[in-house]
Design a protein that fits this description.
It contains two helices and three strands, in the order ββαβα. The protein is of the alpha+beta class and about 80 residues long. It is rod-shaped. It starts with a strand and ends in a 9-residue tail after the last helix.
Amino acid sequence: MPTYTMKNIETGEEQTLILSLREREEMLASGLFEQQLSTPGFVSMTGGTLSKTSGDWRDLMKKISKESGRGNTVKS
């Protein structure tokens, strides 16, 4: 289920809630809450994908690069 940031209009308190679409609509229809805009969490990756592959894959890429001829664009 999605996560929503809801603000209580009377108290100004913000809560992050896991709600179904129906539950969200019911909260908004009650007139006691308004939805706050928020951004999703961001997961980043450090390093390249090639560094996270197995040694067998890197060996295969080296072989393909070596045997593909002059001017190839295969990176190993």
